[in-house]
Amino acid sequence: MNRQKILGEEPIQKLLLQYSIPAIIGMLVNALYNVVDRIFIGKIPDIGPLALTGVGVTMPIMTMILGVSMLVGIGATTSISLTLGSGNKKDGESILGNAVVLMVLMGIILTVIGLLLRNKILILFGASENTLYYATEYINIILVGTIFSISSFALNATIRADGNPKMAAATMALGCIVNIVFDYVFIFIFNLGIKGAAVATVLAQVISTLVMVYYYTKGSSNLKLKIQNLKLDISIVKRIFAIGFAPFAMQIAASAVQIIANNSLKAYGNDLSIGAMAVISSVSLIFLMPIFGINQGSQPIIGYNYGAKKYKRTKLTLKYAIVAATIIVCIGAVVIQLFPEKVISIFNSDESLLKIGVTGIRVYLFMLPLLGFQVVGSNYFQSIGKVKIATFLSLLRQVILLIPFTLILPRFFGVNGVWLAGAFSDFIASMITGIFIIREFRRVEN
User: InterPro entries, per this entry (predicted)?
Assistant: First the structure.
């Protein structure tokens, strides 16, 4: 049976497992690019805690790069799914070609701007005299590899729309394995320290990107990357940006929150408070990335069936995705609340860092059980092309709620106010998302 036809006829449970499990593996692997770096960095003798803080200062930049990756990657993926759902392969290849050009152009722009304004940006993002050196050593190399960072994520997303989730997972797994091996080699054997972690990450992304380019040019892909499609079409670019804007906006908002949080943590706490937030963010990634994997797996199913006007199948996919996501985050919440010291000590067991981090991780991620529902709900509207609703729900938690809470609560609760801001915004955003989901379910029933 044709890969695309399967999306409209196979049982939803089977499809969701088939597409989501490889996507979950892929997203976990994507998370491990950063998490493994931080684990190795935290273990560097004598400087581990401060080096972690240096990486924490660079997180807003890393998040911005991920945001651009999602702008192009998810925008192109949804566009390709909807196009293939209507049976138009030629337009799908045009979208793929335009996406590749955008990856390169946006990567160059970010690299140039980042290197020119590096120190000013890092100080604005919370770097101190003690941590600026480590932040600079790390981000210099990451910025040089921005094209490959964007391409490795974005091309991987499009491969799922191409109907090959196993290939998508395999390329991500390859990159992660390379990253882990190179981390150890460059940090501990070549003694490159924090710089070695950045080199390992970039080289892993280069290898992943090259493998995916080969897949689209000489491999078994449904869509082919052709030279004649490497010319920007303004209508395609607008379509990619319109659909990809919601996840892009969410990541840019997350970057803004990280900047505000870093400066609040620096003002009401100390450098190690920023390091603790870097650890907390890494831990949350481990549990949230599977949810993004479910989103990635469900997206082509929802997009294809919505494009084919099989609305009952889109609704059923959403239901199963919400249940699966909620189970995952509930497991994560139990682990975090019962064993916070053990979770944080994976990165570094410094007593001062543990003292700050244990309270922070318990409070900041207290509403984690609700986030699966909130994230999957936002993704549904994005998958069916309802950009305005998707954008609102994506920004709700990260901008409309979290930024004001992060600015206001520390004035009353000190550094604990930063942790409380996360819990408050997660709860309110989930409740509001629930209202939109209920309305959508009723609309689909009709």
Answer: MATE_fam (IPR002528), MATE_MepA-like (IPR045070), MATE_MepA_subfamily (IPR051327), MdtK-like (IPR048279)
Q: What does the pLDDT read at residue 301?
A: 87
Query: What span, in angstroms and rounded, lies between the C-alpha atoms of 188 and 388?
Result: 48
CA distance 289 to 354: 24
What is the domain extent for residue 408?
Answer: 3-445
Nearest to 435 by CA among 384, 383, 396: 396
Closest Cα to residue 179, out of 205, 204, 202?
Answer: 204
**Residue 152 contacts residue 173 (beta carbons within 8 Å):** no
- Are 95 and 76 a contacting pair, CB within 8 Å? yes
In percent, how much of the chain has pLDDT > 90?
Answer: 59
Between the alpha carbon of residue 58 and those of residues 54, 205, 432, the distances in Å are 7, 18, 31
Confidence of residue 22 (pLDDT cuts 50, 70, 90): confident
Residues in contact with 429: Cβ distance below 8 Å, sequence separation at least 6, in sequence order: 374, 393, 396, 397, 401
Which among 285, 361, 295 has a CA at the least distance from the CA of 325?
A: 295
Amino acid at 269: G
Q: Token match 């989930």: residue? A: 430
Q: How far apart are CA 212 and CA 151, in angstroms?
A: 9
For residue 348, give the 3-state DSSP assignment. Answer: coil
Q: Residue 128 — φ and ψ, nearest 5°?
A: -115, 180
- Angle among Cα 205, 209, 214 to the nearest 5 degrees reads 155
Nearest to 96 by CA among 229, 292, 234, 289: 229
The structure tokens 């053990």 sit at 342
Expressed in percent and rounded to 5, the helix, strand and coil fractions of the chain are 85, 0, 15
The structure tokens listed for 408 are 């206001």
Mean pLDDT for 260-273 is 93
| pLDDT of 26 | 67
pLDDT computed for residue 445 by the predictor: 63
The answer, yes or no, to whether residue 146 has pLDDT greater than 70, is yes
24 confidence band (pLDDT: 50, 70, 90): confident
**Phi, psi of 355, deg, nearest 5:** -60, -45
Question: Does pLDDT of 1 surpass 70?
Answer: no
Looking up tokens 């543990």 gives: 354
Q: Is the pLDDT of residue 406 over 90?
A: yes
pTM of structure:
0.81
